[in-house]
Amino acid sequence: MAVLRAFLQAEPAMVACAAALLLAGALLWRLVTRRRVFLVDYSVYRAPDSWKVSKKEYDVIVASTNNFGPESLQFMSKVLARSGLGDETYAPPSLTNVPMDLTMASCRFEFESVAFGAVKDLLNKVNVSPKQIGVVITNSSLFNTTPSLSATIMNHFGMGSNTINYNLGGMGCSAGVIAADLARQMLEIYPNTYALVVSTENLTYNWYPGTNRGMLVTNTIFRVGGAALLLSNKRKDSRRSKYELQHVVRTNLAANDAAFNCVFEVEDEAGVRGIRLAKELMGVAGMALKTNITTLGPKVLPVTEQLLFAANMLARKVYGSKRVKAYVPNFKKAFNHICIHTGGRAVIDEIEKQLTLGRETVEPSRASLFRFGNVSSSSIWYCLAYIESYRGLKRGDTVWQVGFGSGFKCNSAVWRANRRIRDAHPAWEGFDVAHMYDQLAKMT
């Protein structure tokens, strides 16, 4: 009591100084004791060969539905021909069989094939029982069921009654990073826990049989895919885990009407539901990326790059943006590998141009788009699987994953390799990089 009385009677300056020291100590303690989050391993789904569909086959199937006139068919065929997709992507039987089967049963079959396949492969790799998993998180932007997709996985694998589950919907192609971030937050709360994340989308549910051009694009570039991740905060997993999560930066432009409306689920003029992609999409994506990397940069860039960037901003403010060209930081100095969401050929081209990345840096994303198509939120994991399969990583290597999605959002995750990694993922078996570049050169 005497000490407390003396503290309260002390000079205000001394009280403020003591309070500041206590606060600094508390922050330091939180930093030291903060639970580290590890990515033990992950799995990307490769559909059966019977699900493969070439661009020509796809054109024939779409025409056979008799839902589309000559102009719509020509438009979709033209988009697909220039999309950057190869001839070995996957579509579910519900869409490739004639007539199409767009029932809820077919939607569930597609989800279960992808999710159960990816999770089973992952659990076998990490030698973890479903009963050991404390948190389950699924993300599928448009297809969401009752019971939830996360509950569907828990039911199939017989997980415990105390397992916490979340289902993220409506968050677009960048939801893979959001789901990983939610898992991180859960692992910071619950000690000695595994978190399972499953990222996917559903083609059957999202087929659009209308004629609005802004809504037809989704019929052409999206394909079957999904990823399952196992994250851990257990100290014993620090050595065997592939990666440790370093940073997550999430940018949301929902307050901007143009950004909010550029990817929008709506009925067309005839009352047919679909996803409308606005012509402003690429501009909005560029704005979101700029905002995201402005926050991410100070966390990851070398001091020299930060100084150059700050000096450039000052010069542009003093002399004007027309006289001083904007300086784009060299993110290749911050990251050893970059995984760009495979939203489309134009998306990859634009980011390569804006960040001056070069052909080799964006190759994993081009390869993922060519081999698997736009697989929504799971695409960044196909990119990383490509890197592990064909290049490998050294201990300490950093990976930047960047995704874009409705809302509009740009989300980044930064991982550091815990050990040397060179895994041959079955999903990438037999892929020919030279053939890809040969085929891309023919796309006009």
Automatic annotation (TrEMBL):
SUPFAM superfamilies: Thiolase-like. InterPro entries: 3-ktacl-CoA_syn (IPR012392), Chalcone/stilbene_synt_C (IPR012328), FAE1_typ3_polyketide_synth (IPR013601), Thiolase-like (IPR016039). Belongs to the thiolase-like superfamily. Chalcone/stilbene synthases family. GO terms for molecular function: acyltransferase activity, transferring groups other than amino-acyl groups. The chain crosses the membrane at residues 12-32. It comes from the Eukaryota. It holds the Pfam family FAE1_CUT1_RppA. This is 3-ketoacyl-CoA synthase. It comes from Monoraphidium neglectum. GO terms for cellular component: membrane.
